[in-house]
Write a structure and sequence with these properties.
Length: 168
Amino acid sequence: MRTDIYGQQIYTENDLCEIYMRDPNKKLENVLVDRIISISDMLELENQPKTNLYTESNLSVSEFDKDLQSKWLMPDNYKTLDIAKYLLDLCSSDAELQRVGQELMLFQERNMFNLLRYLKYLVDTMRKHNIVWGVGRGSSVSSFVLFLIGVHRINSLYYDLSIDEFLK
């Protein structure tokens, strides 16, 4: 296995065979391989893993990142979630509504609604699997929206933290 300039793991035929020889029940989905082979024929597996042919790219790292950001890997119900409505529905006071509205406008200007949807998915997944994460650190704690999603536990309205500290 090797790693390309984007940090993606690229497997060879031998890598995949070795993995399946060690653990025939191992599930590898959407792996990148140098050449597509029929693993099921070679190892007599019932379910061939979904593989993607790896090709070298002429994209710069920033272009690659931009392309990946258009393909968020999360369930469809999160991709279609009306994140603005979800967050506004969580507000219980006019001050909260005003702050969420202000932050949502800033997130929208930066085209970051998919990030908010993904964070909602990530937090839900961590809660479902009882994964513990930090209470909050850095400038992220000045975002009331991230507090509502559950990314951190610092109520920026209570502590009068300015959103300007987060989205500079």
